[in-house]
Amino acid sequence: MVTIQHSTIHKKVACGVEQAKSVSRSVIVSTSTKVDYAIDPVAFYRQGENRIGERFFWAAPNGDFVMVGVGSAHTLVSNSDNCFKQFEKDWQELLNYSTADQIEEPGVGPVLFGAFSFDPKKEKTNLWRNFPIAKMVLPQHVLTITKDECWLTVNMMVDQNTNAEHLADAILKEQQNLLQNLTKPTYNPSHRELTIEELDKDEWIASVDKVAGQIRSSEIEKVVLAREIRVKSDRPFITEEILDRLLTEQPISYIFALEGGEDCFMGASPERLVKKQGKEAFSTCLAGSIGRGSTPEEDYKLGNELLNDAKNLHEHEVVVRAITSAFEQGCERISVPEKPILYKIRDIQHLYTPVVGEVKKNVSLLTLVEKLHPTPALGGHPKEEALQKIRTIERLDRGLYAGPIGWLDSKGNGEFAVAIRSALVQGKEASLFAGCGIVGDSDPASEYKETQMKFRPMLSALGGFSHEFK
Ligand SMILES: C=C(O[C@H]1C=CC=C(C(=O)O)[C@@H]1O)C(=O)O
């Protein structure tokens, strides 16, 4: 099932080699083909298994936009807190030396996919050894599925010594392999026996009490405190199987996976950080939570309770203020509804306010990400004071949890979600993370229960089941 002609690729690479010679540096050669048959994205990801450590998966809510990457033509890595600006500069420079087909469709052509740590200033532990503070990958092979189109892109880094014939052969062979066995995989539905260790549970509950007290007697309005559970299985986890479950069980969330070495960071986040399409930018305020009812009546009652609960409305309002203020710096004609509505996912319902704006000239997606992150849904308010509190009080290393994860293309489009409801999968073990917005009248026992609820999507996708987390 070859979709790109060998002669076409060969010609493009040969041109790239000439360009590399003339500018004395390596250049990107990118070419995209529209395919007129369906490709199952999880099957495509699975087919890339000989590129373990170099794959990613992304599906926007309702499968409206899916992107899968295999292999790396180039990787941007940063271990500093200047990562957004550094990547912006690196990406522009790479694009200045690229030859790509002119395709308007967002997410087709040269793209970067990657993730940023929640807090580059927090000391890094061994848990996240396979991930830098931030990384974004220009994938070798990309599958992009939009509402009505399906595209395959190959990206190559070419220098003056590249053998065009060899590179064209290798890339086409790999693409052919990726396009084998494209039927939707079926996985064994049997559940696993998981052992769950709740790390520093009592300390976490005590810290909620302490921070709520400090909030009552200081200028700090809100701090998000997170915790970690470590899950062990009798056999290695299979990331394709987890992706498949997440897609089925969490259809209105962002489903993501990013590999680093043998590890995989993955999740199902309901929270958009920011999307940029053309001149428009979209963000989401998501904060304030309650469970789902077991009957429609109970569910409605709980939703109503949430919509009228002063503590949750306050938690939410802090986020709306911060996102609106970040938008005011980068956008014009901002629109924010006056009141939140409910966003109901399988295990939980949230208060939700969408924010839309028209991006000012020369403001890029990464600039918006930098201005927004971390919103008070993940950090707190005021931002710096809340971050300082999290650094000193939280015992876990959040790593990529609660950081921005997503993609951008060569035309300035792209989207980032906030990497919550996530897990770092490491062979037979996984660390899961969940946090809660703490305000002055937060109750430690209820916040603890809320984290149990927030662990459920990933626990279930890992194939596990536990009464405590029900
Ligand atoms: C920090 C998390 O959730 C945030 C997003 C939505 C609702 C939240 C809340 O109600 O506390 C949190 O701010 C998490 O799931 O780990």
From TrEMBL:
Residues where Mg(2+) binds: E315, E450
GO biological process: menaquinone biosynthetic process; salicylic acid biosynthetic process
InterPro entries: ADC_synthase (IPR005801), Anth_synth_I-like (IPR019999), Chorismate_C (IPR015890), IsoChor_synthase (IPR004561), MenF (IPR034681)
Keywords: Isomerase, Magnesium, Menaquinone biosynthesis, Metal-binding
Active-site residues per Swiss-Prot or TrEMBL entry: K222, E271
GO molecular function, one term: magnesium ion binding
Listed EC numbers: 5.4.4.2
Superkingdom: Bacteria
Cofactor(s) annotated in UniProt: Mg(2+)
The protein's annotated pathway: Quinol/quinone metabolism; menaquinone biosynthesis; Quinol/quinone metabolism; 1,4-dihydroxy-2-naphthoate biosynthesis; 1,4-dihydroxy-2-naphthoate from chorismate: step 1/7
A Pfam family of this chain: Chorismate_bind
Gene3D superfamilies for this protein: Anthranilate synthase
Start and end residues of each Chorismate-utilising enzyme C-terminal domain: 201-454
Reaction(s) catalysed (UniProt annotation): chorismate = isochorismate
Role summary: Catalyzes the conversion of chorismate to isochorismate.
Family membership: Belongs to the isochorismate synthase family.
Name by which UniProt lists this protein: Isochorismate synthase MenF
Phylogenetic placement of the source organism: Bacteria, Bacillati, Bacillota, Bacilli, Bacillales
